[in-house]
DUF1365-domain-containing protein (Trichoderma asperellum), 581 residues
Amino acid sequence: MCATWNLRSLLLPICHNLARSKYILGTTVLAFAIWAGYYGLGIILRDVSQHQDDPTGIYLIPSRVTHRRKRPKKHSFSYSYLTVGIPVGYRGSVDGMISVDEPDIPIAWPSGIWRMNNWFRVDARDYLERSSHELGLRGKLDNYLESQGANPASYPSAFLVTAPKFLGYQFNPVSFWYLYSPDKILSAIVLEVNNTFGERRPYLVLRDTSEDATRISAPGTIHSNPSDTQIKASWKKDFHVSPFNSRNGSYSLLAKDPFENSMRNFCGVDITINLTSSQGQSKLFAQLRSEGEAIIASQMSLLERIKFIFSWFWVGFLTFPRIVKEAGSLFFSHQLHVWYRPEPLKDSLGRLANGNERRLEPIFRQYLRFLVEKSPNPLMVTYVPSGILESGEETFISSKASCQSEQAQHLKIRILTPVFYSRFVHFAHDFEAIFGEMAENHTIWVDKPEILPKLFLKQQSPPLQVSSFVDFMYFKLIQKLRRCPARIVRPMTSADIAKPTISAEDVRSFRISPMDAFVLGHSSKETRGSYRSLLVRIFVADWLFLGMTEIVYTLELIGRFGVAWWLASFFSAPKDLTTRT
């Protein structure tokens, strides 16, 4: 009886707390649902239209993606897909449904959902070059065309078909920029391809009217007047998209003019892309086609907006899981080899920089500016960063070039991938770092390598000179931990056997690097502290945790919590007071 009573006494508080927690949880969920419904309905009911007088308007385009692989194994799938059509140059929002190119603070997903005023969003930050988003879609398009040797004035009208962000989330494998001549004739298309690694490759393909445009049409597709309403082009593949295809081969495109040369009535999207191997064999084709009529966003009623959102909100979130599912089928069922990701080439855009790379990039930029400005040679160096949204291309001029501009030598340095920044700090000598990363690891591209020795001098690293004991200890530790990074070598496919990675060893004594000396002598106290602690974390991760700095940060956080807990325990412990009797 006593044991039963004790068990009852033990279980009653637990059941009471459980019921209370369920009540609190249910109340919280209900409150959140009410808030979400009120907030969502508020967005739908908003009338914030800011239309410009454009006859094409903004379209919501229900679509379907079809993918059919022919070699080496047959495989096909199809799924619904939502795209929007935007006249490039438009800025504004439409009745809480979609905003386009509005100058606004970037909103992170999912933490910034509550700050959004539109369900769908097309933002210039997500297209073409990583920086210069203040130029808008039209400005970024013009810059890209100029970089490709094309005259933007030849394409005064442009129409973008892309997957929009929904509540700040976006997975957008490819966007299509339709470019029209002054006579409203579809003359070119920019295909902006994104892969799952965050890399990007825009292709400018010009109209080719020399051959029959129906030759590469997808099976079952019927076209009328192909020479008037379609654009056909082909180009070499040089971008890693699917892990089941190499970077070799070529693409062929057949795209229907969504306005059929009128630029007035939207007729739908119809795009077919064929991939051909380097041996000339057709490997696969992918097709994006409208499914039903496109919807003019500004003409939707309240009920139509509600119905559309409930019908299509889930599509964007499922695009990536669908791709993963099909990839699993190709790998496990069809047993296709996996092609490992190579570093991007010059015309591609690298992934976004991680936290360490974002902190190193401005220091490298300052160091490069310092080298150019103090150079005794007349140099003009254009620096193009990689993976950085906050800052873009910049040109540095030496003092001698300022006085003798006609004799100045021009050099362009383009960082191909942000991994360059974390690799560069591993080297004790700039000359080896730049030439090694350019020739062997392909993380940097230089248009005139013969000028590099005039900028990065081949000389011995400077001795360690510091003004504080903390700096001395940090940079001594950096000297001991620094070693040349391993060469970037990967097996080409999962069937190959990875060869052991060989690290190049510098036989000269490792002093501090020239960039270390620059930070010590020419940077602020805050920059110096950030730089030295970051390098120690990176080097410790290389030695102990296979380069995973996240483990170092986690251990550091645990250590700080442990010290804080010990101090709190020590000072809050009751003192042992004895009373004398």
